[in-house]
Write a structure and sequence with these properties.
331 residues; mainly alpha; Cytochrome p450; 2 domains; 13 helices; 56% helix; elongated; disordered N terminus; Cyt_P450; iron ion binding; transmembrane helix; Cytochrome_P450_78A; iron
Length: 331
């Protein structure tokens, strides 16, 4: 067989053009496309997370990812940033894949807080692990949430309940004054934050559990340690909330700490609930009139339609203790 029969004749003046793009050229094009795409996402107003949003209303905000929330004074940094962008009424920004809006204008902030969308805001991992998803702070908006709100408004924050605890607060106030006197006499220096912390925590413990503690020793020291660690875990910025694959690693160790603390809280609060049940049975046995005093008593004597399970009661009581104490400390 001749060679001409097994080959193609393109002519003497023809030039062969390959039909396939070279691998080097293909990679270069893909890399260029990737750079353009990432640049668009990065420099989008509000950052990466807002670039993927279906919301088409343009809200001013910094590009990229904002790291202010991981700092110690996030509110100051965000306020300064919104002022520099002339976005004090509303500013959008991204942290990982999470979209945020922030306002330094009171009217806008009030509108956000009154919005029904705010009722179902995403829950942090630490808040979920510490049982906050079963209390009014982060419970999904619905019948369960409305029931918790009704119980709180009626039995915990009502004017009648607050007025009934006047003597308790007066006594705690006297103890705080004595503590200030003692510290002055001993060292001439007063740790005001510590006095306020112990005083507010004791007030909450009396209202919720009906017990007073010496937070310097014994069970009181254990309680104070649990509450303080709860403050810290809830306030620590967790990258796993905003960069999903980091959640598998728990690089900051927050999940492990939260689960350990939640186990301790379950034992502590369950024991207090059982003590109240035993006291109730003893009162009924001897024919005494049962007096509903603290919030544990209230939860144990709710009507059938409002009744909470033991696990829900533990979550509600713990969150009330932690959240109210934290609120009082920042007043």
């Amino acid at each position: 067989m001749s060679s001409s029969s097994s080959s193609f004749d393109f002519g003497s003046d023809s030039t062969f053009l390959p039909l396939l793009i070279s691998p080097t050229s293909s990679l270069t094009s893909l890399f260029a496309l990737l750079v353009v795409t990432l640049s668009f996402l990065w420099f989008y107003p509000g950052g990466v997370a807002w670039a993927f949003s279906k919301v088409r209303v343009s809200v001013p905000g910094p590009p990229g990812i904002v790291f202010a929330l991981s700092g110690t004074a996030a509110h100051r940094v965000l306020a300064k940033l919104s002022s520099s962008l002339q976005a004090t009424k509303l500013m959008a920004f991204s942290v990982g894949i999470t979209r945020f809006v922030v306002s330094t204008h009171p009217d806008t902030a009030k509108e956000i807080l009154n919005s029904s969308a705010f009722a179902d805001r995403p829950i942090k991992e630490s808040a979920y692990e510490l049982l906050f998803h079963r209390a009014i702070g982060f419970a999904p908006f619905g019948e369960y949430w409305r029931n918790l709100r009704r119980i709180s408004a009626t039995y915990l924050f009502s004017p009648r309940r607050i007025a009934a605890s006047v003597e308790q607060r007066v006594e705690i106030g006297k103890q705080m004054v004595e503590e200030v006197k003692g510290q002055m006499a001993k060292s001439g220096v007063v740790s005001v934050k510590r006095v306020l912390h112990y005083g507010s925590l004791n007030n909450v413990m009396m209202s919720v559990f009906g017990k007073s503690y010496d937070f310097a020793k014994g069970e009181g020291a254990e309680v104070e340690e649990m509450v303080s660690e709860g403050y810290e875990l809830l306030g620590t910025f967790n990258w796993s909330d905003h960069v999903p694959f980091l959640g598998w690693l728990d690089l900051q160790g927050l999940r492990k700490r939260c689960r350990r603390l939640a186990a301790e809280v379950n034992v502590f609060v369950a024991r207090i609930i059982e003590e109240h049940r035993v006291r109730e049975k003893a009162s009924v046995t001897v024919g005494e009139e049962l007096v509903v005093g603290d919030f544990v008593d209230v939860l144990l004597h709710l009507e059938q339609g409002e009744k909470l399970s033991d696990s829900d009661m533990i979550a509600v009581l713990w969150v009330r203790t932690t959240f109210i104490s934290l609120h009082l400390m920042h007043e």
